[in-house]
Amino acid sequence: MAAVTTDQIRDVVERLIHAAQWRESDPGLLVVLDAGYDAPRIPHLLADLPVEVLGRLRSDGVTRKPVPFWCRGSAPPRMAGAHPSTAASSYEGQDVRGFGGVRPHYP
Q1: pTM of the predicted model as reported, rounded to 2 decimal places
Q2: In whole angstroms, what is the distance from residue 39 CA to residue 18 CA?
Q3: Strand, coil or helix: what is 73?
């Protein structure tokens, strides 16, 4: 389907260029695609044309990474030691002031 769509877009863009409706000094033509099209692949196939592709992605989460193993009912892995900024040597000699009455973000 991406090949057919790409051929159709290529034909329209070439007709616009041939009709002098687009020049080198103009910004790229904006091609807007709905969710049914292969929006990540079409710009790659049209790389030789002066187009910018805007595509709506499906909202069912198909582009997400798989859930990490530690999110499946167990606790996340602990850090391997304290963060370097918590060491007293990282702020010695600096003007460090606390903000009274501010609660931490953790319980």
Answers
A1: 0.54
A2: 26
A3: coil
